[in-house]
Amino acid sequence: MEKNQNQSTVNSVRSSMLPYGQQWIDNQDIEAVVKVLRGDFITQGPTIERFESKVAEYVGAKYAVAFANGTAALHGACFAAGVGEGDEVITTPITFLASSNCVLYQSGTPVFADIDLDTYNIDPKQIELKISDDTKAIIAVDFAGQPVEIDRISMLAREHGIVLIQDAAHSLGASFAGRKIGGWADMTMFSFHPVKHVTTGEGGMIVTDNEDYYRKLLLFRNHGMTKDPNDLIENDGPWYYEMQELGYNYRITDLQAALGLSQMDKLDEFIKRRRQIVNVYNEAFSGMKGLVLPKQNPLSDSSWHLYVLRWDPRHFSADRKTIFNELRTLNIGVHVHYIPVYLQPFYRKMGYAAGLCPNAETYYQTAMTIPLFPKMKDQDIKDVIDAIKTVYSKYYAQF
Ligand SMILES: *Cc1c(COP(=O)(O)O)cnc(C)c1O
User: Fold this and answer.
1) Same structural domain, 111 and 233
2) Pocket perturbation via mutation, ligand 1, pick of 148, 193, 252 by most ligand atoms within 8 A of CB
3) For residue 66, is it within any domain?
4) pLDDT digit string (tens) for 302-336?
5) 255 & 287 share domain
6) Could you report the per-residue pLDDT of 270-306, keeping only the tens digit for each?
7) 160 and 69: one domain?
8) What is the pLDDT of residues 159-215, one digit of tens each?
9) Residue ID of nearest Cα to ligand 1 atom 10
């Protein structure tokens, strides 16, 4: 009681931290999971295929293979693409670690191509400069939900005989030139982590139109093992199973698939709400000199996983860290996505060094993710805007 009274004297401090992202689980979701719990299969039952079909149909792809998480799915995609020792895979430094770690899992070499400072996505011109005789694949990441220039990147991949993998962890439901993400690349990965568009707790998926990749992904997800009589090299009898590749246990469960199926019913509403919030933010922050708002490629229709503001240091008397900490004090759960992957100690040990991708490093110095998720209430949105304006006025300095 006393605490609340104290807080109300401080202008616009929320009583609890607003996270940058959060799931939205309703009663339909809970009932769907409970129904599976009461049934015969809690893992490897029929719900997984229903979930796979639903996502494949939604994004316009022929096949889908669900995985235990998005990182495992990317690992599977690298395996199916044939990435191995001596192979280079081009990706962006402004991404989650998994986009390039999956290359290392297969003993390949990640090659980082710099970003475009307008969209924060990998720059097709930089990809072209990094292509070599050893380039096996490109992993293009739709940062913050905005699709990469997938038309140009597809063309590059085709010209050079390179496998194109799209890391669409941020962009389920987004489209490029009117076509949904999932229907463009050789393989496309979605993640169902709770901050992403729909959740299964942990979960991921690869969609593809290529039957050969599809079969490889199925093997890889399940110890490299098959029981399908058509695929067996030998057949000792009805018990017989055969391990043909080195695979993993990367399976998802029916429980999770039931949650995912139910969440998919709400995906379009979730995205609609995200876009609404983005419009409110854009309007509120437009004209605030020194704040760089997210720019959109006219061909891409983002599904808005993240809203990133950049603070141009020339306009503020405090650095990004001070501003960041102050917003956290106001209970606004700001974040930074991402630290350029190659600056991580593990990557530095392999020989990657600062200066490799100057745009990515500039971006990292100035970027800040502010809360964006469909369950945000109008008051939450107002709290974010008020807090940003408060901190902005405190530190804005005309030069
Ligand atoms: C979330 C994410 C992943 C990995 O997904 P998990 O399901 O958490 O393993 C990969 N790439 C990007 C860009 C992501 O944001």
Assistant:
1) yes
2) 193
3) yes
4) 999 999 999 999 999 999 999 999 999 999 999 99
5) no
6) 999 999 999 999 999 999 999 999 999 999 999 999 9
7) yes
8) 999 999 999 999 999 999 999 999 999 999 999 999 999 999 999 999 999 999 999
9) 98
Pairwise CA distance, residues 330 & 384, whole Å: 9
Q: What proportion of the chain, given as a percentage, has pLDDT over 90?
A: 94
Per-residue pLDDT at 358 exceeds 70: yes
Distances (CA, A) of 210 to 62, 77, 108: 8, 12, 22
Q: What is the dihedral of CA 375, 380, 382, 385, to 10 degrees?
A: -100
Q: Can you tell me the mean pLDDT for 99-109?
A: 98
Q: Which atom of ligand 1 is nearest to the CA of 195?
A: 1
Tell me the C-alpha distance between 150 and 158, whole Å.
Answer: 12
Taking all residues of the chain, what is their mean pLDDT, rounded to a whole number?
95
User: Is residue 59 situated within a structural domain?
Assistant: yes
Question: Do 289 and 234 share a structural domain?
Answer: no
Q: From the CA of 204, how far away is ligand 1's center (Å)?
A: 8
Q: Which of 264, 293, 318 represents a domain boundary (last residue)?
A: 264
CA distance 317 to 193: 37
Average pLDDT over residues 6-22: 74
How far is the centre of ligand 1, averaged over its atoms, from the C-alpha of 96 (Å)? 6
Ligand 1 centroid–CA 94 distance in Å is 12
Domain boundary among 199, 233, 264: 264
| Whether 81 and 110 share a structural domain | yes
* Most ligand 1 atoms within 8 A of CB, residue of 20, 91, 96 to mutate: 96
Q: Give me the domain span that covers residue 237.
A: 27-264
Is the model's pLDDT at 2 over the cut of 60? no
Residue 95: name the closest of 166, 192, 154 by CA: 166
Domain count, the chain: 2
Q: Which atom of ligand 1 is nearest to the CA of 74?
A: 10
Residue 172: CATH number of its domain:
3.40.640.10
Phi-psi group of 131: left, alpha or beta (phi > 0 → left; psi -120 to 50 → alpha; rest → beta)? beta
pLDDT for 13 beyond 90: no
Q: DSSP secondary structure string, 189-201?
A: EEE--TTSSS--S
Indicate if 342 and 248 belong to the same structural domain.
no
Distances 24 to 68, 190, 273 between C-alpha atoms, Å: 20, 18, 12
390 and 295 within one domain: yes
CATH code, domain carrying 391: 3.90.1150.10
